[in-house]
Amino acid sequence: MNVFKRMAKQEIEFLYDLERVLIDRKKDLPKGSYSTRLFKKGIDKIAQKLGEEAIETIIASKNKKDSEVIYESADLIYHLMVLLVERNIPLDSVFQELIVRSKK
């Protein structure tokens, strides 16, 4: 079964919408935007934040509350998306890799 057949179209579209917003933020650098601050600080800061969120997700997974895992996972996905946009790697490239792996 294709891994994406289980995801609702709405969720996948949201990820593409987020990607477009982040691309715009990187280009326009609007004041007051957290994404702008990350893009201005560059890849080292973005990678650091991604690592921090990964650790926080791991710690949350050891706790009893699913809500903590969900919250930290959302932060992790957001920061991963920022990193991908910073590196000019389209979300489609990640999806294609997942599809290839799902066929093994």
From TrEMBL:
UniProt cross-references to InterPro entries, sorted A to Z: HisE (IPR008179), PRib-ATP_PPHydrolase-like (IPR021130)
Q: Give the EC number(s) listed in the UniProt record.
A: 3.6.1.31
Taken from the UniProt entry, a GO cellular component term is: cytoplasm
Q: CDD domains, per this entry?
A: NTP-PPase_HisIE_like
The protein's annotated catalytic reaction(s) are: 1-(5-phospho-beta-D-ribosyl)-ATP + H2O = 1-(5-phospho-beta-D-ribosyl)-5'-AMP + diphosphate + H(+)
- Compartment annotation: Cytoplasm
- Gene3D superfamilies documented for this protein: MazG-like
Domain of life assignment: Bacteria
Q: Which GO terms describe its biological process?
A: L-histidine biosynthetic process
Q: Which UniProt keywords apply?
A: Amino-acid biosynthesis, ATP-binding, Cytoplasm, Histidine biosynthesis, Hydrolase, Nucleotide-binding
Please tell me whether the keyword Ubl conjugation is annotated for this protein: no
Which terms in the Gene Ontology molecular function aspect does this entry carry? ATP binding; phosphoribosyl-ATP diphosphatase activity
Pathway info? Amino-acid biosynthesis; L-histidine biosynthesis; L-histidine from 5-phospho-alpha-D-ribose 1-diphosphate: step 2/9
Read off the Pfam families from this record. PRA-PH
Give the record's family classification: Belongs to the PRA-PH family.
Q: What HAMAP family does this protein map onto?
A: HisE (MF_01020)
- Name of this chain's protein: Phosphoribosyl-ATP pyrophosphatase
Source organism of the structure: Rhodohalobacter barkolensis
Q: Gene name?
A: hisE
